[in-house]
Fold:
Amino acid sequence: MRHDHIISAKQLSRADIEEVLDHAADIAEDPAAFADRHANTLLGMLFFEPSTRTKMSFMTAMKRLGGDIVDMGSVESSSVKKGESLADTVRVVEGYADALVLRHPMEGSAKMASEFVDVPLVNAGDGAGQHPTQTLLDLYTIRENAGFDDLTIGIMGDLKYGRTVHSLAHALTNVDARQHFVSPESLQLPRSVRYDLHQEGAEVREHTGLEEVLPELDVLYVTRIQRERFPDESEYREVAGQYQIDSDTLESAKDDLTVMHPLPRVDEIAHDVDATDHAKYFQQAHNGVPVRMALLDLILGGEA
Amino acid sequence: MSGDDDQQLRVSKIQNGTVIDHITGGQALNVLAILGIDGTSGESVSVAMNMPSDRLGKKDIVKVEGRELSQNEVDVLSLIAPAASINIVRDYDVVEKHRVERPSVVVGVLECPNHNCITTEDEPVQSRFAVVDDGVRCEYCDTIIRDELPAHILAD
Structure:
């Protein structure tokens, strides 16, 4: 891995992606072989907004590599509460840790923070911007279930503010994929992501209804329609119901359709989907550990 | 009266300052916005809009008495008037004349319109925009600005 910092999915080439995914597959096959890989290594956890899966999977990944974590704790209990800048916080914590993981509510925060530190910094989500490590585990799950060739993927939900969607859309330009985006008009992809997809020559179509495209899909990636993004509740209720799936919805889908979700879900995937062969979202969440182990190993100087 | 003389009458010569010629027709007021000129600071300014031009079809001209432009101002100006030429006038003579060039990045001259961009916070970082095909793009949050660019110029 030639990158010092992991800030955006845009920086990852096909070779980078395959290097991480192949290494993750090796780790998943024999995790014990990597148990002492990074003994005495400390990972600095800087989470400025709540996180369950991302934070716990980074902590698990570091510990399973033999290392440990130092955690800033909640914003309320840190110097941030006293008005310390992000630039100062990361410069202090880089003195304690061998690498940093940053989640922050503002777009561009990870890029800015990376300009102030010499240790590797990993973006664990910057506002509505990017979430590149989520994308790596998404790609791992897609490759396991549907492969990277002749792939038709539908991405549905809040495409405007969904950082997992932005990162995934960029990364999919590296593989042989047709991307179908399904959302209310008010939550369509932002201008910057459209620009990049156009520049990359990606095969993209946009829809307001899933039924138009569902039968073609190999993968359906569902995200939460975020109630807080709508100016009023009635407007939210009007669209939200159109972007929920259940086992009946999936009757028109291919038998081997893979349904994914970055989680947490609210009601966009009914629980009756969990028991079907389509449901891969818990497997997807579990893949976060070997994928983040692989990424940490590579940026900390391990060899694949 | 020839066309040139007619044009001369409409836009008189200046003694010292800058003449910005070959501005894309209709963009003169945005050029004034870029230069922070709103008429309140007493500068003598002449503006001609939608003048006939062989090269552009229609062009605007702005003459500013007693003011030479900074490189930052020229960089931003180039984004809305890529064919503009800058003439520096001293004692009624043009002593420098050059075309604007689109830079690859503009640093510290535009404010990101995304209120959730880290560059709008109290952090030790300057705004930084990459120049793309038809606008500029924040290098931190990726927000693209196109037509609305003059509205986001940072005050000095």
